[in-house]
Amino acid sequence: MIELGNYNTLKVLRSTSIGLFLGDDEGTEILLPNKYVPEDFQIDQEMKVFCYLDNAERPISTTLKPKIVRNGFACLKVVEVGAYGAFMDWGLEKHLLVPFREQSQRMEEDNKYIVHCYMDEESMRLTGSSRVDKFLSNENVAYEQNDPVDVLVHRKTPLGWEVIVDDRHKGLIFDSDIFKPVSVGDRLRGFIKNVRDDKKIDISLQPIGAKMLEPTAKMILDKLVENGGFLPLHDKSSPEEIKKTLHLSKKAFKKGVGILYRQRKVNIQDDGIHML
């Protein structure tokens, strides 16, 4: 079955004057227009394509890579506001419509917003929504501390940054756990810090506890190499100075340097850290 709004791996069935017809194991066919046809295709070869409805509402495939897929989230730019809603640039020729009823705030041209892409059951069209909370659930959270996750920064709150976790759940990165610039739309690698009894998820941008040591030490070593083997940081450096240079807390910095020192990779002097 060909799934609209997602990538499909299909077989090349035949070549025509308007493009290639691709098909699945169930006998469903879809057109890949000439402008997307690779020069070295072969009949019966498999191709990975994105499938959606074109401007004439016909199923079509493309080798272009959209910025969002069905049931996913992304930060998209408004290219036009029309009579029915806002049209977003999602990397394809036909823009993604976010109807006015699906806007958490009235969208404006040239601004960017976090949106969810879904199949509207009434129109059977791929549709966008900035009311992202209704597409997220923390009911079935099955994470352990330090599990790696993908996060999309959603919005700023008084406590920190609200994020979308693995395109399924809602999480929060507290301001105290942020040591580098963060903005809406950033895709980051995070780690589960805590899953509370009420299913709220706390996220850290660094591994927790003992598991934090090795990646942190490597980060400091990489920065030393980048700076010619020297960093003007030491135990008396301020937390702000360490955060600005390495995007680390002073506690994480001291632990990472301690590992490097014990491994005899660095020497600590009054003016800073020297790589051996």
From TrEMBL:
Domain S1 motif: 3-65, 144-206
Source domain of life: Bacteria
A UniProt-annotated Pfam family: S1_2
Gene3D superfamilies xrefs: Nucleic acid-binding proteins, Winged helix-like DNA-binding domain superfamily/Winged helix DNA-binding domain
Similarity remark: Belongs to the CvfB family.
Protein name per the record: S1-like domain-containing RNA-binding protein
Source species of the chain: Flagellimonas yonaguniensis
